[in-house]
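Data availability (excerpt). The following record was deposited with the supplementary files.
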Amino acid sequence: MKKIIIFLVSILSINLYSDQLDFNTFIELIKQKLPDFKKSEINVAKAENNIKKENSINDISLSISGAGFGKSPFTDQGDTYIDFSSGFTGSAGLSNVFASGTRLYGGVEYTQVHSWGSLKKNEQPMSFDGVFTADSYDPVIKITIAQPLLYNWFGFLDRFGKKDALKALAIEKMKKELSDDAYMLVYQKLYFTWIQLKLNGSVLIKTIENAKTLEQQTLQKVKNGVAENDDYERVRYMLLQYNQANSKILQNEKMIIREFSQYINSENLEPNTEEFEIFFQNALSNDYKFEDFDKTKTSALLNVSKERLNELEKVYKNMNMPQLNLFGMLDVKFHKYYSDINPDGYDNIYNTRENYGKVDFTAGLELKHPLGDTKNKALIAENKLLLDEITNEYTKTRNNYEKNKDLIEIQLNTIKENINYVNDKIKSLQSRYETEKKKYSQVRTDTYSLIDTDNSITIEQTNLLSLKNDLISLYLEYLNFVKQ
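Predicted structure:
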């Protein structure tokens, strides 16, 4: 919350107090709008959602069913003939999968049947014909349990889904951090290149002002007859060159602004040029230290990817095993039977039977196994190739890391040396320029030497700004590099 408030205050300060855009605000504005950031956020959200999907295996499932029926059975023996039976049956139950792979079901079933038909009895002492009705009621409590012993050994495959989803989330988060840093590095460098162009423009504007003064002085000398026209044209040509160079800088600045204008309303905005020197001094004094590759985020990413493939290999091997399951079923049955017989010439005969809590149980082992299982064998072979590939990628990435580390150190030393050289050259040129300027005012030298020295100073000043920006860029690359 504190960061958000600071960010909002920074945004308001741009609009209310000045048109100056500091580095941190610039980067935060880019982060808010850059589509690539949204893409990586979506990938992380997808990975988080996959974990929820994998958790669904532990969800309790409710099953309910019901049906009505009617049937006309054939009676081939006996003295009872059922004309029709009708009734209904229903069941309800809960099932769940535990972390151990155990499948448990508990539920109830209920069946009720009403039947009617005829009865013919020819045995003494009672012989009669008649009709009858009968009703039966059968509630059952059912418990079923199954435990995998080889394939999906104690829930190994069930647990893998969530375990793999957690690793996938860790990978996506690391990818997001690495990609976000890489995207932001581009705009961080862009900001300081923008400043460099501004400072180059300032150097040229000052040089143009000096050139205009020299042009007026030379023109006056031509009028006084102490200078030739070619001296004046030489100064004028130099001024035109400076104006042309300044126009090119303005063009390049517009191109830089175009790179981020779709994310930031860049109208009338200026970078904070003071931050150029601040970052340059930080880059100059920074103690450049590097972690071993094995401790980097990139190494961690590759290691998690490798762990994921190792786990997948175990999955494929387990899937290649027979499906051997220990199972058990328990039924607690209740039964009630009621019949009403209406014999011809006799009183009705009523019959009732009740049974409570009778138990049926079944326990055993079941085995299923495909012959050949070519697909799983191919998946295991493919996974080994992927492991070889990621091992090779690890070696390649580590070598690139070491190479880039050496390149940063080489460039760092080279840029620092060149900055010292250019600073010394500027001091020498400025001293020479002051001497030549005095000589020129005393008509002891021509404009050619003065113009040549002035050109050299301008070139070296812009070279210095370019080298400073190179060092800042290298510093930003280093900061990004050590976060990888």
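Summary of structural features: Confidence is low (pLDDT under 50) at residues 1-18.
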